[in-house]
Each structure stands twice: as structure tokens, then as C-alpha cells.
TrEMBL record:
Family: Belongs to the glycosyl hydrolase 43 family.
Protein name (Swiss-Prot/TrEMBL): Family 43 glycosylhydrolase
UniProt cross-references to SUPFAM superfamilies, sorted A to Z: Arabinanase/levansucrase/invertase
GO molecular function per UniProt: hydrolase activity, hydrolyzing O-glycosyl compounds
Record keywords: Glycosidase, Hydrolase, Signal
One BP term from GO: carbohydrate metabolic process
Source organism: Pseudoduganella dura
Signal sequence range: 1-46
Site (Important for catalytic activity, responsible for pKa modulation of the active site Glu and correct orientation of both the proton donor and substrate): 175
Stretches the record annotates as Disordered: 286-309
Pfam families per record: Glyco_hydro_43 (PF04616)
Amino acid sequence: MAHSRRTNLPPLPSMNLPVKLPVKRCTLLSSTALAAALLCSCAAFAQAGFDNPLVRQRADPHASLHADGYYYFTATVPEYDRIELRRARSLDGIGKGESRVVWRKHAAGPMSFHIWAPELHHIDGRWYLYFTAGRADAPLDIRLYVLENAAANPLEGQWIERGQLRTGWESFSLDATTFALDGQRYLLWTQRPPTADKHLTAVYIAKMDTPLSIAGPATLLTQPQYPWEKVKFDVNEAPAVLVKNGRVFMTYSASATDASYALGMLTARADANLLDARSWTKSPEPVFASSRRTGQFGPGHNSFTTSPDGRTDILVYHARDVEQVPGDSLQDPNRHTRAQAIGWKADGTPDFGEPVADRPAAR
């Protein structure tokens, strides 16, 4: 989502955007069912069909399809001061769908500044909002917090503050997400390692014993190591998980929040020990990056959802439609929420391709 500012910065390196883009070809692989499925997926990918941008000036989007048939959506608002929930029967309807501000920042103290990256999750019959917040007297002293709601519709009922989600040590932390696999729930989040440079962030995983707490020590999964992860800032942040084809795919975002922002990916077998960093393989190149051809810049901080029938996996992310942002990119409000279908390679791994060009709805 964000990172602390540096002072007395050295001259910035020339930005070589990671725009090495694969060309999509729907080729006939064989007569097997797998090939047919891949061809279908490739066709869906080529015809994403979303009215992008779905929601303007909404960064760090989180969208999920619930059992009631609604898509629920939340994201960072440009004022960094509140949490807004939306719902609609389709992703294209999110921008004009039912919406409600469910929580506002405090006047002072914890949770009084930099309200970032909310995520809505339904766990054991209750709704939980995981989000990041700072303090008005220390804006970048940010931590993870949780809200809880027992109502069937999270736009209704009472949201109760459940306090800070403790990770085992106190440092700059943000971007919590959660997923369950084989009966075990996990927390993934971004945090500055205890002994790291103050400008570095990494992604961690831990088991959860309740929706409000982790059990046992955290495992560091990824920290910046490649040049494309270190443009202006050394950043790995904003994890998101997609479980498919017997594997766990974890995307994350890297570098500054301008056009250099891009998605990386780690992969593990679904039956592996996810708390063992050796179970994960890191892609050396970004899997989703800026595209001058389609006019999309800084795509990242994504979530995953599906089509209503569950057959098509969908990437929901933010990006800008301008390459150059004057001043501090974190203060620019024009990161817009977009979506596109995910393609699948013959080896069962996701093919995100390049960010599709905007296709605004007809007026």
C-alpha cells in the first residue's frame, strides 16, 4: 500500500518499466479435457469484458463473491479517513452499487490516520474487516487492526472494534489478508523485519487460532531481492492468495506506488508446509506490470475473485492511466480499481498477461 518517505534521497535511477509482455495465443494443445479447459480459459482471458475502471479513485481493492450472490467490495479511499463497503450483483455494478461508510478514523491516538487497505472476510458466520491505520501524531507508525460484525449483510449491523492484530513484534506493518486451506486458517501480511533497514518491507505468514490472532511464530516468505522490487523503495507488500491446480499462488506488490509498481508471485504445493519458506518458489520476473501499449501504469495490490458461476478466475487490482505522477505518488488519488479474467498456462500456473485497456461503460 505505502511506505515511509526517505529524506536526502540520491538521484533516482532511470526507470525501465518491466513491460516484457507475453503474447496470448489460443493454440489447440490436444484433445484432452485439460486442453479444452485451457482453451476456454484463454478465450475468457482475451474477452475480459469488464467496464474498467470499475471504481475510480479506489486503491488496494478487495472484492469477493459471497454465498448470497453479491460481490462485496472495499478499498482505500483517497482521503485515507474511513472504510466504505459496497455490494452489487456484478463486478461491473460495484461502482454504482449499494454503498455505506461503516467506520471512520479516530480523532486522535491509534487508528487516527492513514486508514489503508481494508479487506472484508466472512469467517465462521461473522464478517471481519482487516485494515491498516496510523496515528495522527505519528502517521507512519502503522499497525494492523480488526473490526467484527455479526449481521448477515455487512453493510448493516454494528461494526465492533477488536483492536490491534498482534504479529509478535512491533514495527511498520500493513496489508493483512487471510485464507483457509485444509481446515487451517492463515494470516499473510506486510511488516518491517525486526533488524531490517527502515525502508524495507517483507511479507510474512502465520497460522491463525482465531480470526483476531495468530498462533506461533511468523515465517518470512519474501523480501526485495531483484532490481524491479527496489525501484525508489525496497518493498514487498500486499499479499493475495489463489489456490488452484494443487498449488497456492501468492501475489505481492513491489517497488514504489508509481508506474514502477508491479506484481510478483510465490508458488507452493497445496500439500506443502506453508510455514516453511523452502516450500515456496519465487518468480524472478514480475508477473503483471505497467503497459504503455494499453495505457495502464503501476498495476498492483490485487485481490482474487471468480465469475458468478465460479468458472472464471478474476484479478481485481488498481492502476493509473497516466505514467508520470507529479510529487509524491502516494498522495495522488488516481489509482482506479480494475478487473480482468485470468488465463492459465499448460503447466497449471496463472497467466496474468498485461493490464487491459480501459473500456468504460457506454453512457
